[in-house]
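Query structure, 431 tokens:
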């Protein structure tokens, strides 16, 4: 038994539930830029923590008649710029800290892209692959009903993320609308087009990553006419990146999925790879390429490495082994701060996630607007608006990096922080 005196003398502190490695890493990035910008602690302190976090228990009836319970989260990081915006993820290892880190990331992403949103995120701790469609629907609807007091088209707008999709968003939209008594399409983005989803929403993130890749190659005045590219994660984002860059004349030499990857020094036919995967269910056995592991794929010689899978793939254990000239972060937080320092010391340019993959939330903003005004834009209108925003954001980040002689991450964070801080200054501190 611990005595009172032992408690008094103990130097151990109880961490907040969200202070997991994911969130501490997000804080580390914030504090690094805050020190560079010499920001006052009173300005930074509120941004180090989420504005609010909600944990809910989700009971749901399984197909066999039993009742299982799951834990769900919804977090708002900062709402100075507008309502919260962020995804919902389903994974058996989801934690409050992970969700909080993602909410903070969304704050910077929305601010950098000049969107009228703050950062939010949510998730449910479950393995979606062991549940039937009917079970997932009941879990999703109960989750939506449990968080209904903190979401809304003017409060917090959800979107798809890891292991969620347009069907998930449709269930949430319907649950929210039924509770309110009328259809409210702007409660979510990334929903099916037939019920108000925006054209190009599914392709948007990968499209934006590809556009940022083109812009950084042009900015660095790359000499190669067909830069070589390795894409880790051939999912919805990675496959779009590979396909677009392939058509643009880049040489895709390596790709991977969760089970492993392929490498061909002369280049892969991405169309054939996608067709093979669609038919066989994996890349295993694909002809005209060598098999590599995901770890080996990251260390392949190439001009551009695009990690489009999950977080923390480039770390201090492998950063020194990378043989690329540019890293374009298609995934959220695929590079740890320690790895980033190593890449910087080696002269490897890194295009940060808050810029590279921000097209997804940008088209989500377009969908939100279309839902509010009940007006559907054409696909060409969506792409035209997206191209303008991505190009303008890239130029601002590149110019800031040049002016302040900083990395692109620091430049992007500086611009995002300046916008959030201005909003907080103008709104003041209540009461």
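Result returned for the query:
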């Amino acid at each position: 038994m611990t005595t009172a005196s032992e408690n008094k003398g103990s130097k151990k502190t109880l961490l907040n539930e969200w202070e997991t490695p994911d969130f501490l890493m997000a804080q580390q990035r914030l504090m690094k830029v805050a020190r560079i910008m010499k920001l006052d602690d009173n300005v930074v302190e509120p941004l180090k923590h989420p504005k609010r976090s909600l944990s809910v228990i989700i009971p749901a009836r399984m197909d066999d008649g039993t009742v299982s319970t799951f834990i769900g989260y919804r977090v708002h990081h900062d709402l100075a710029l507008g309502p919260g915006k962020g995804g919902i993820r389903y994974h058996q290892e989801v934690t409050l800290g992970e969700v909080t880190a993602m909410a903070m990331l969304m704050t910077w992403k929305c601010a950098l892209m000049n969107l009228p949103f703050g950062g939010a995120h949510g998730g449910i701790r479950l393995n979606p692959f062991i549940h039937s469609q009917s079970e997932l629907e009941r879990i999703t609807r109960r989750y939506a009903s449990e968080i209904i007091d903190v979401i809304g088209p003017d409060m917090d707008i959800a979107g798809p993320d890891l292991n969620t999709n347009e069907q998930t968003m449709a269930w949430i939209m319907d649950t929210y609308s039924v509770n309110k008594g009328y259809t409210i399409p702007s409660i979510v983005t990334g929903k099916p087009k037939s019920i108000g989803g925006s054209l190009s929403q599914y392709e948007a993130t990968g499209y934006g990553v590809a556009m940022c890749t083109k812009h950084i190659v042009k900015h660095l005045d790359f000499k190669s006419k067909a830069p070589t590219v390795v894409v880790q994660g051939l999912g919805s984002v990675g496959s779009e990146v590979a396909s677009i860059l392939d058509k643009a004349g880049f040489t895709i030499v390596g790709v991977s999925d969760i089970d492993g990857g392929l490498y061909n020094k002369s280049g892969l036919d991405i169309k054939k790879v996608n067709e093979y995967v669609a038919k066989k269910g994996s890349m295993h056995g694909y002809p005209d390429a060598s098999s590599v592991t995901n770890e080996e794929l990251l260390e392949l010689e190439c001009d551009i490495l695009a990690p489009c899978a999950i977080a923390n793939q480039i770390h201090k254990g492998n950063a020194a082994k990378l043989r690329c000239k540019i890293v374009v972060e298609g995934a959220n937080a695929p590079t740890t701060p320690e790895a980033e320092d190593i890449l910087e010391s080696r002269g490897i340019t890194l295009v940060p996630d808050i810029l590279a993959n921000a097209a997804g939330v940008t088209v989500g903003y377009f969908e939100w607007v279309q839902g509010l005004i009940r007006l559907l834009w054409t696909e060409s209108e969506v792409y035209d608006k997206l191209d303008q925003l991505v190009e303008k954001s890239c130029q601002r980040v590149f110019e800031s990096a040049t002016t302040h002689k900083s990395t692109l991450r620091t430049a992007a964070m500086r611009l995002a922080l300046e916008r959030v801080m201005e909003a907080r200054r103008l709104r003041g501190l209540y009461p």
